[in-house]
Design goal:
Length: 304
C-alpha cells in the first residue's frame, strides 16, 4: 500500500468534515451530497496530509505509525473517544469506524480495506437508509462508487419495516427495485438499465402467495422482448416437497410439471394446439417420452 493510498483509507475512517461544518452547511441550505463530500475531503487529505492528520484526536495519535494504524499488523485494536465509546475497530487491513453527524440527524459506519470501502448510513430513527460500496484508490480522481442501496419505509402502520430497496450496480449500468409485503416477502421486483435518460425498466416480476406464505404465482414481463408476459403457477401437495407447476406464455399453457412422488414426476410440453410431449423422470433422469398429436400416441421412446 502506498502512502497516498494509506492516507486515503485513513481519511475515510476519520473524515475532515466536522459536525460544526455540517451545522453551518445545513443552516445555509447547502448540505453536500455523499459523493461531493468524499471527493472534496479526499482531495483535501491528499493535498494536505500533514494538516489533515494534525486534527486526529489524542486516542488515535497513540498509534505508533500511520502505516501500522492502517492495518499492516494483524492485531485487533480498539480506539475510543474521550467518553469511552468505540470509534474505530481495526483488524489487519480491515477498518470499521462509526461517525455521528448530529446536525444532519444521521449516523455513518465505514469499513475500509485496500481494495474498497463500504459506507452505511442510518437515519434519525436508527433505520438503515443507504449503503454504498466504493473502489479504493491512491488518488481521489480514481475513487469510484461501485454500487448503492437505498432503503424506503412506506408502511404507515409500521414505519420501521422496509417497504422497498433500490439497488444500483453502477459498473454494469444496471439497477433494480424490490418491493416487499408487510411480512417481508417480495411482492414486486423490477430490473432496469441505467441510461443517460434515467432508469429504463427491462423486466418486472410480480409474486403472489398462498395462506401458508408459499409462492403461488410468479408473473414476469419482459419489456426488452416487446412486453412478452410469462406466468408460473405453483400448487403444493403431499406427494413431494417440490410444487407442481404450470408455465404460461401470454396466457397459453406451455409446460406443466406434476409430481407423483418425491423425485418422480412428469413434464408435459405443449407446442401447437393438439401436439404435445410427455416426459417421465425419476431422480432427475428421463425414463420415457411419449409424443401425442390430436390425442393419439405418435411415438414412444424409453431411455436406459
Amino acid at each position: 500500500m502506498t502512502l497516498e493510498a494509506a492516507v486515503l483509507s485513513f481519511y475515510v475512517l476519520f473524515p475532515v468534515w466536522t459536525d460544526s461544518q455540517s451545522a453551518i452547511a445545513l443552516a445555509c441550505g447547502k448540505v453536500p451530497s455523499a459523493r461531493e463530500r468524499i471527493t472534496k475531503e479526499v482531495s483535501y487529505v491528499l493535498d494536505n496530509p500533514r494538516l489533515a492528520l494534525s486534527d486526529v484526536d489524542s486516542e488515535i495519535q497513540k498509534v505508533g505509525s500511520l502505516m501500522q494504524s492502517l492495518g499492516l499488523d494483524a492485531q485487533e485494536i480498539h480506539y475510543t473517544k474521550d467518553d469511552g465509546t468505540l470509534r474505530l475497530l481495526s483488524y489487519g487491513i480491515e477498518k470499521t469506524s462509526l461517525v455521528s453527524d448530529i446536525s444532519a440527524g444521521v449516523m455513518n459506519n465505514v469499513s475500509v480495506n485496500d481494495k474498497q470501502f463500504t459506507q452505511i448510513v442510518w437515519d434519525e430513527h436508527k433505520r438503515i437508509k443507504e449503503k454504498s460500496v466504493w473502489r479504493n484508490a491512491a488518488v481521489s480522481s480514481a475513487v469510484k462508487m461501485l454500487s448503492k442501496e437505498t432503503y424506503f419505509y412506506e408502511f404507515k402502520d409500521n414505519p420501521s419495516i422496509v417497504s422497498s430497496v433500490a439497488k444500483e450496480f453502477l459498473s454494469q449500468d444496471k439497477a433494480s427495485r424490490t418491493y416487499y409485503t408487510i411480512n417481508g416477502r417480495i411482492s414486486d421486483l423490477r430490473h432496469y438499465n441505467i441510461t443517460k435518460k434515467g432508469w429504463v425498466m427491462t423486466i418486472r416480476e410480480r409474486y403472489q402467495y398462498d395462506s401458508s406464505g408459499r409462492v403461488s404465482s410468479l408473473r414476469e414481463t419482459s419489456y426488452e422482448k416487446g412486453g412478452i408476459e410469462t406466468r408460473t403457477v405453483y400448487s403444493y401437495s403431499e406427494n413431494s416437497r417440490h410444487p407442481d407447476t404450470k408455465y404460461y406464455e401470454d396466457g397459453v399453457l406451455r409446460i406443466q410439471t406434476e409430481y407423483s412422488d418425491e423425485e418422480v414426476y412428469k413434464v408435459t410440453t405443449y407446442f401447437q394446439k393438439n401436439f404435445y410431449i410427455e416426459a417421465f423422470y425419476e431422480n432427475g433422469r428421463k425414463l420415457k417420452e411419449v409424443v401425442y398429436n390430436n390425442g393419439k400416441v405418435q411415438r414412444t421412446r424409453t431411455f436406459e
